[in-house]
## 1
Amino acid sequence: MSISNIKNKLKKNSKKDTSWIDKAKWRKENEAWLDISFDIAVSVMSALKANKSNNITPGNQRELAIEMGCSAQYVNKLLKGTENLQLETITKIERILNIKLIEVPKTSVVNSFDFPNLTFDSFSESFNEFISNSLSNNDIIISSLFDNNKEPMTVGKVQLNYNTPLIEEQKVTYKCTSVEHLKLVA
């Protein structure tokens, strides 16, 4: 038999494995939660390692499984970083290991304040109304307020520069006694 005949016979009789394509598609479709699951697994492993070196329970997967009320095999599966974890499981692990695995932002963003072609008076009035509405709705104003040292400001003054068709340039200074409270000074 010639080499070409052998190659043809092998091609004809061999099975084509395309399961890797399906696995790759699945990983791509689930990439977001798989990344988070992997990060959680790394954090849990780090916490277990730290607990073990400090002689704190749980210090290994078996002890974690006992405290979680599940099998060691399930904990092993979680720590592979490919398990779609439920919030209940995540919070249970957080409580047992005394670590923070996920956090939901507790702030709300208010609508942005747009001030094209405003006069000084209408700007001040509109801005103060915007601030009042935001505070009355218990919203937190999220802004980039910095002092001269480029540090986030909590107390100080906020200076807004803007140009209008009527006035060449105006500087409006707001006194900031807290992030939630801005008061017109000038």
## 2
Amino acid sequence: LKKVHYNRKRLKQARTLKSVETLSNSALTKHAINFSKAIYTNFQACTNQFYHSNDKPVLESIRYSVKRYAYKVNYSAKDPKKLKQKEESVCRIQDEGYISRDTYSNLAAIEHHLPRVWAISERRKQITQNIAELVPISIIDIQMQAQVDPIEEPDITEIDI
């Protein structure tokens, strides 16, 4: 009974928020997700006050930072055609520009808008598979032996040449 009263009293108390510097990565992620959901809900509620119902405003993305932590939240769904085209372009750039996987991996770690390395690898496998279906490659093992007659003398006999 004492524990029940203690828990009820504890629930009634205001929740104290911790500084972002003391939070773990999972707690930071949860805060960012909940904050983003709250912004989206408020955006949906406020659109009727500021825009006509036929206008249909869309929240695409937001950017914000808390101390040294920067966040970018995308609300819009990604277009698979554009994503495929972007991944194929990166594959082509890697091949033509002699960019190694490690170099691209380092670059993709810095720039959040670049496709991830695993996505590029998967796209490269699909491209290779499509080319293999379109252009069949056959390997023929031909063992050739020299057809030289050891008795025959060479036409050029000068040592200086």
## 3
Amino acid sequence: MALSISTEGVGTCERLLEKSGAIQRLEPYRNMAVVRIDSELPSLIDLIPKRSKWRRQVLRLVEKEVGDSRYEPVYIQPTRWISQGLTKERINRSLRELAELESFDYVPPFRGRSIHVPDRTVQFDRLSIDFDTLDKRRELDFAKLQNMVTYAESGRCRQLAMMSYFGDKTTSTCGSCDNCRQQSGSDFGEPSVMPAPEATSPALLQAARMALSG
């Protein structure tokens, strides 16, 4: 899906969705799978048909790894269980089948930071996202951005503009910034002054926003 959104914007969206509980950003453990058991039952073994030999064997191994860590993600390395008869394919297939249980969650091994959606049935309008606060924060960000653009395009003394921004009532110019040198016609170095554009380009706005966000 092609969206006109920056990497920074994607990261912000992920943090908001994670905070609302819509997604889980898993830790970047190399080649580790994640399991989660949400049940008070001592074991889920009775939920598995007795004829499902490999599934029951894998479940016992998982429950041994999970221990008392119920209702939270547990990182495991299923390849350690490979033995005579229990192959990698059987382990993976058994884990996928176990994930069909309502109280068993499984995320396959991955590289990097994986994103997991615990419940795909939750509608977006049911998520607890404070859009009013987000709108206020966006307005503040745009105000900061406008201040930066104004500063960059202004012909006023740079030092005077900065001091004024922080409430200092100083009225004397510095005499050494690019604007002061241009106005005085000083010959100790040509100032690098770009003509003010008719409209601020999207690229400039994006660069300024990234600078403001740190």
## 4
Amino acid sequence: MSPGTSPGASSTSSTGEGPESAPTTSEGTSTGAGGDTGETEEAPAGGEAPSDSGPKFDLGDSPDPVDPGSQADKPCVKIDLLFVVDNSSSMKQEQVTLVASFPTFVSEIQQELADAESLHIGVVSTDDYEHNDPACADTLGALVTQTTGAEGASDAVCGPFKSGQRFMTEADDLPTSFTCAAQVGIDGSGDEMPIDAALAALGPDLGAPGACNEHSCERTRCWCW
């Protein structure tokens, strides 16, 4: 030990048996020492990290491209339209406006869907419509085929329609049939449930055999009526 040095300390010129810091080259790389393998990666000039030094994320396999001829790439050609009409007391003028605009809407939708194989149209109210036909009165989501006795309604028996079901098709006189069914009146509950009514109308319970919105699902449709 040289005079003036502390025990346990070593200078860069000492040859002690303890591990030494690896010298650094002018390019910024170090030579292995102690437990190093001696194989180190050189940093590019300027001190930037290698391009692959960042974290690696497992993103899974890239999805296969859609086959142009597959079913997923084909447009929907069997269309179902569900109208949820508010039959609470404040909606009389809105129902009049809806009915008045429907012929133009039907004409334009038929032009737009000229390649469609079939079109189904149904109407439900925003409550458990008591003026519907007796078999389905007081049932939330039941398609409207009758409006007799409702205030401000068409006050008529509108269906069954040409399909024999509770929905209209292109075989019906759509402006006339829709005008009848959509004028559900304005004496319904003020506790409107439009989302619940729509979900019930499209759900499996009302669509089951013998139920109010019975349908056949042997055909692929956007919705199933």
